[in-house]
Amino acid sequence: MSRSEVVTRKSAQEIEYMFESNQIAARALSLLRENIKPGVTTEKLNKIAHEYILSQNAYPLFLGYMSYPKSICTSVNEEVVHGIPSKKRILEEGDLVSIDVGVIKNNYCGDSAITVPVGNVSELAARLIRVTEESLYVGISKAVCGGYLGDVSNAIQTYVESHGFSVVRDYVGHGIGRKLHEPPAVPNFGRKGMGIKLEAGICIAIEPMVNAGRYDVRVLDNSWTVVTCDKSLSAHFEHTVAITENGTRILSKAQ
Ligand code: MF3
Ligand code: CO
């Protein structure tokens, strides 16, 4: 096994650094939520997050990551993840927008995402947002010492599908620490008891991507934006969590 496949366990000090980065991500998301209304551009949201993160002596982790051009991802309606902020994209009443924020400070990463309704949205959009966020917490409840990664994946999939929605297969959550993406991969579908055993010190980003229609997705010509093939709505929530002997800590939950 090469070193890059090893799941590292973080010390208490490392988890404190990750908490600090994730709290900045959480506060950036709260600030963005307050600013989401009809008429605002996704570029404006990018600017707000970028300036806030720098003001905290931190750096927007996504900017320049694999040549990604912006500081956050903004994915509207049928866009699943990795939507690129643009001054041409003006949010409209009834849209839903997924915002993904990454932060690095003291060499440790934070990663969190929310989906927000723009003004009044359809009953379907509201239900999709609610079920996706609930599925994240259902998954987190299984991320405990002694459990298996597959328990997390299976709990998310079962919850989402019981509500008639589908879980994206082509993109998954991930381990996180000094790097944005570390082992293990954290799928939002799978079987109980499968995958690695969860131990104290493991830090993972759990991020269900849920489609109102079929699970198939494709990437647009800009080589970033992921959209649903059937053009159905999609939602995304993400938390970075640390598994410890004293329970699971949601590092990106605002405190
Ligand atoms: N939360 C996403 C992830 O875990 C965002 C990365 S997008 C990129 O992959 F912009 F950084 F590429
Ligand atoms: Co992530």
List descriptors:
alpha+beta, Creatine Amidinohydrolase, five-stranded antiparallel beta sheet, four-stranded antiparallel beta sheet, globular, binds 2-amino-4-trifluoromethylsulfanyl-butyric acid, binds cobalt (II) ion
Outline the secondary-structure elements:
Elements: H1 12-35, H2 42-55, E1 59-60, E2 72-76, E3 79-81, E4 96-105, E5 108-117, H3 123-141, H4 149-162, E6 166-167, E7 173-175, E8 182-186, E9 203-206, E10 209-211, E11 217-219, E12 226-228, E13 234-236, E14 239-244, E15 247-250
Antiparallel strand pairs: 1-4, 2-4, 3-12, 4-5, 6-10, 7-8, 7-9, 9-14, 10-13, 11-12, 14-15
The structure holds 2-amino-4-trifluoromethylsulfanyl-butyric acid and cobalt (II) ion (CO).
CATH H-level homologous superfamily name: Creatinase/methionine aminopeptidase superfamily
Q: How would you state the average pLDDT, rounded? A: 97
End-to-end distance, in Å?
A: 39 Å
Strand order of the largest sheet: 8-7-9-14-15
DSSP strand tally: 15
CATH topology (fold) name: Creatine Amidinohydrolase
Global Rg:
17 Å
The CATH class name reads Alpha Beta
Structure explained in plain terms:
The longest helix is centred in the N-terminal third of the chain and has 24 residues, at 12-35. Strands 8-7-9-14-15 form a 5-stranded antiparallel β-sheet. Strands 1, 2, 4 and 5 form a 4-stranded antiparallel β-sheet that branches. The protein is globular and about 45 Å long. The N and C termini lie far apart (39 Å). It has helices at residues 12-35, 42-55, 123-141, 149-162; strands spanning 59-60, 72-76, 79-81, 96-105, 108-117, 166-167, 173-175, 182-186, 203-206, 209-211, 217-219, 226-228, 234-236, 239-244, 247-250. The protein has a single domain, classed as Creatinase/methionine aminopeptidase superfamily (Creatine Amidinohydrolase, Alpha-Beta Complex). Helix 1 (12-35) runs antiparallel to helix 2 and helix 3 (123-141) runs antiparallel to helix 4 (149-162). With 255 residues, it is an alpha+beta fold. Bound molecules: 2-amino-4-trifluoromethylsulfanyl-butyric acid and cobalt (II) ion. 2-amino-4-trifluoromethylsulfanyl-butyric acid is lined by residues 62, 65-66, 68, 73, 82, 100, 102, 111, 174, 205, 238.
